[in-house]
Design goal:
Radius of gyration: 32 Å
EC number: 5.6.2.1
Catalytic activity: ATP-independent breakage of single-stranded DNA, followed by passage and rejoining
Mean pLDDT: 84
Largest sheet: 6 strands, antiparallel, barrel
Structural class: alpha+beta
Enzyme class: isomerase
Oligomer: single chain
Strand order of the largest sheet: 7-8-14-13-10-15
Number of helices: 27
Organism: Rhizobium lemnae
Subunit structure: Monomer.
Strand content: 15-25%
Length: 883
């Protein structure tokens, strides 16, 4: 018997069926060991010696693998076909050698790009040794991320309180988002006018032509800068006679794009399907690992972490056969198409992302897939088959028109295009991301127009416009930009974006990435004091060196030495850096954010409350805010915000009187504090305060709303069964009902003020009917996942801190943004396994970063954050973070 080690238990089950009884397939559940989250895990002074740690869950799995190998004939390491997969195989083999169970048994590495019987059997027939160059590249990347995280993040914590962390790739991606925001803030709109004429042919057909020249000079796009100039040109056209100078119809071919890579799949799924990068990878992982198709588990797509754009010859042949069968011979080009990647530093050798079987059309598998799986599979199938189809044939028509008004002349142009043969467009049409979309004047079809014929003017249009700032990045456009610059690797993009969102460095609104004030502060700090390490070229150059390590062209420790010497010197230089130096630099770098312009034109850096103090950034326990230099005589403070809230807060420089509380006679005021606007009743230490709920704007607050908010919790009425009071209030975790020690969540803040006794009793009864648990009412399962391999049911539930996976007494919080209904058995097992292996709660209190934070240096957690601290660790443990 031979032992085969894969990463996923789902793959293990499928592959065991393919290989038969002579093999035993076991899963490693991703990485089996990692660098401990503590100082000394990487030792630069000892030639970058690395100390690895095996957690309890991984130790149990390694014991099972070791026991199986002990009685086996040989070992096949079949982890994923990328650098990370190579590293996992190396870790497994190293641990087995230390357990002394390998002996003289043959050990081979096998890789397959798809979970199909043919792909697996072919790989098993062609094994190789572990590629040490790929392992070296992994070790270099892991050491770099650790050294940056565990040395740069503490600098942030000391010099910029409230900052969470800094990471090697994360910080550069964040800089891209912040730089774009700076461009938007600095942008000055410019006026321009569009001039066009609606013309009619002798046959009565209307079309529009745009002004392109006047008085012998070319009129550039957006070249008419004011209304006076536009008026003169419009007057010329109003009294002009029009004739067709020339008509040119030119055939144009449009070729299909290559099959998907990781990044182009993420971009297309964002633009076409509205998927986040992380959601795309979750669904793709499932399609790769296999879906039950009529009683057989089959991988539907090839491996989804790749830079490659080429398909295997047999896949190209299959695609061409499918094109002939499903679209017809007219859609089949004479020769197969071959592609080469244009991405900077592309280095993957394996295939593009494609269907494992082109005959398995989306329609044939529809009933076996859920909605998201079907939509993503359809995208991959269409893009893959389109890549081998005939070109689309277009006809582009350009009409040049002369407008004559006395001795004055103007030129107009009309452009249109017609699809003569749709070609690959019959299978796949790419939806451009809205941030990349521009004006397209070639979509319209022109009527019959002949040279030298006269045209009749129907109307002259003159419209005023203003230039717009560059659009904020979406996930798709940021991924595209990172790939163009060579920053990070495709498989890291989703994790990088999730990290930025989880740490509240960016917020995502309407699919746009907006830097939070925290993120802008961190970026400004790094740009001022660690300039080199957030430069795009430096980061791309380092990625290129890592690629050369993987190709065996560079020594990995030499690359680390060169990096560490300069980086350590920069860290040492910051020890003498004073916080006042930091604040001065940030005040200048972030002036538009810290000191927004005032409507009255007064100096935005002078305190409007005392009139003499200078406003400046201040650093507190919970981060940065704006305060007055005359503190404590002047206690004006203002919260930093990137969503326009700073302008609202600025209007509250002085408390705004809202009237008095009729019960206490104390005055109600609307104020602005470092944590945002709030209501206050009375003055002094005993004054009662209440922050505005999410969604409430300061300008909408009147006496009635202020009174209702400050007097929470509100008595709803006595419960008919217990005669005890039911109250409604707003707490740390949102609006709630409280009765006899039992809490029940309310859907909105409005419910707190409007809910009546009957509805309150119903809500409490529904909560009570779900069962009791540990002093609070237990909740029903949102989703049943089946039994755990060790016995006992696994479920997804909604808790006080958000949705979580439950198995017996083990609860594992879902990653932020994860849809509870989309949780798979494999994801649940990974989260529970990681959670079960954690230290007791008392040991969670730590002054060091957690293990997941070592990869990108997330800062320390306090006991109150213990639950949230577990999330990124669980999420990153079971998934890849690099190719």
């Amino acid at each position: 018997m031979n032992v085969v080690v894969v990463e996923s238990p789902a793959k293990a089950k499928t592959i065991n069926k393919y290989l038969g009884s002579g093999f035993k397939v076991l899963a490693s559940f991703g990485h089996v060991r990692d660098l401990p989250a503590k100082d000394g895990s990487v030792l630069p002074d000892q030639d970058f010696e690395m100390s690895w740690e095996v957690d309890s869950a991984s130790a149990k799995r390694m014991k099972d693998i070791a026991d199986a190998v002990k009685g086996s004939d040989g070992l096949f390491l079949a982890t994923d076909p990328d650098r990370e997969g190579e590293a996992i195989s190396w870790h497994v083999l190293d641990l087995l050698k230390k357990k002394k169970v390998i002996g003289d048994k043959p050990v081979k590495r096998v890789v397959f790009n798809a979970i199909t019987k043919k792909a697996v059997l072919d790989a098993m027939a062609n094994p190789r040794d572990i590629d040490i160059s790929l392992v070296d590249a992994y070790l270099a990347r892991r050491a770099l991320d650790y050294l940056v995280g565990f040395n740069l993040s503490p600098v942030l914590w000391r010099k910029l309180p409230g900052a969470r962390s800094a990471g090697r790739v994360q910080s550069v991606a964040l800089r891209l988002v912040c730089d774009r925001e700076n461009e938007i803030e600095r942008f000055v709109p410019e006026e321009y006018w569009n001039i066009s004429a609606l013309l009619k042919t002798p046959r009565g057909d209307e079309f529009e032509a745009k002004l392109v020249s006047a008085d012998g000079k070319r009129v550039q796009s957006k070249g008419v800068k004011n209304g006076e100039h536009a008026g003169r040109l419009k007057a010329l056209l109003e009294g002009a006679a029009y004739s067709v100078e020339s008509v040119e119809a030119k055939p144009v071919k449009r070729n299909p794009g290559p099959p998907f890579t990781t990044s182009t799949l993420q971009q297309a799924a964002s633009s076409n399907l509205g998927f986040s990068a992380s959601r795309t990878m979750q669904v793709a992982q499932k399609l790769y690992e296999g879906v039950d198709i009529g009683g057989e588990t089959v991988g539907l797509i090839t491996y989804m972490r790749t830079d490659g754009v080429q398909m295997a010859p047999e896949a190209i042949d299959a695609a061409r056969r499918a094109i002939g069968d499903q679209f017809g011979e007219r859609y089949l080009p004479e020769k197969a198409r071959f592609y080469s990647t244009k991405a900077k530093n592309a280095q993957e050798a394996h295939e593009a992302i494609r269907p494992t079987d082109f005959n398995r059309s989306p329609e044939k598998v529809r009933k076996f897939l859920d909605g998201d799986q079907l939509r993503l599979y359809e995208l991959v199938w269409k893009r893959g088959i389109a890549s081998q189809m005939a070109s689309a044939e277009m006809e582009r028509t350009t009409v040049e028109i002369t407008a004559a008004n006395g001795s004055d002349r103007a030129g107009l142009r009309a452009v249109g295009s017609v699809v003569r043969f749709d070609g690959f467009l019959a299978a796949y049409i790419d939806h451009r991301d809205d941030s990349d979309a521009g004006d397209d004047d070639e979509d319209g079809r022109l009527p019959e127009i002949n040279a030298r014929e006269r045209l009749h003017k129907s109307k002259v249009n003159s419209s005023q416009h203003f230039t717009e700032p560059p659009p904020r990045y979406s996930e798709a456009s940021l991924i595209k930009k990172m790939e163009e610059l060579g920053i990070g690797r495709p498989s890291t993009y989703a994790a990088t974006l999730k990290t930025l969102s989880d740490r509240e460095y960016i917020v995502i609104e309407k699919r746009k990435l907006i830097p939070h004030s925290k993120g802008r502060l961190v970026t400004a700090f790094l740009e001022n004091f660690f300039t080199k390490y957030v430069e795009y070229d430096f980061t791309a150059d380092l990625e290129e060196k890592l690629d050369k390590i993987s190709a065996g062209e560079l020594n990995w420790k030499q690359v680390l030495r060169e990096f560490w010497d300069a980086f350590f010197a920069q860290i040492e230089d910051t020890k003498e850096l004073r916080v006042t130096n930091v604040l001065d630099a940030l005040n200048e770098a972030l002036a538009p954010l810290v000191f927004p312009k005032r409507e009255d034109g007064s100096d935005p850096r002078i305190c409007q409350v005392c009139g003499t103090g200078n406003l400046s950034l201040k650093l507190g326990k919970y981060g940065a805010f704006v305060g007055c230099s005359n503190y404590p005589e002047c206690n004006y403070t203002r919260q930093l915000s990137s969503d326009g809230a700073e302008a609202e807060a600025a209007s509250l420089n002085e408390p705004k009187a809202l009237g008095r509380d009729p019960m206490t006679g104390e005055e109600l005021t609307l104020r602005s504090g470092r944590f945002g606007p709030y209501i206050q009743r009375g003055d002094g230490k005993d004054a009662k305060r209440s922050s505005l709920p999410r969604g409430w704007k300061p300008e909408d607050i009147d006496h009635e709303k202020a009174l209702a908010l400050i007097n929470l919790p509100r008595d709803v009425g006595q419960h008919p069964e217990t005669s005890k009071m039911i109250s409604a209030g707003l707490g740390r975790y949102g609006p709630f009902l409280l009765h006899d020690g039992t809490y029940a969540n309310l859907e909105s803040i409005e419910d707190v003020f409007s809910i009546g006794l009957n509805r309150a009793v119903t809500v409490l009864a529904e909560k009570q009917s779900k069962g009791a648990g540990r002093g609070r009412t237990a909740v029903a399962a949102l989703k049943e996942l089946g039994d755990h391999p060790s016995g006992g049911a696994m479920t997804v539930r909604e808790g006080r801190y958000g949705p979580y996976v439950n198995w017996g007494k083990v609860n594992a919080t879902l990653p932020k943004g994860k849809d509870p209904q989309s949780v798979t058995v494999e994801e649940a097992l990974a989260l529970l396994t990681e959670r079960a292996g954690k230290a007791p709660a008392a040991k969670i209190k730590s002054t060091k970063a957690t293990k997941a934070e070592a990869a990108d240096a997330k800062p320390k957690k306090t006991a109150t954050k213990a639950k949230s601290a577990a999330k990124p660790k669980a999420a990153t443990k079971a998934k890849k973070t690099d190719t």
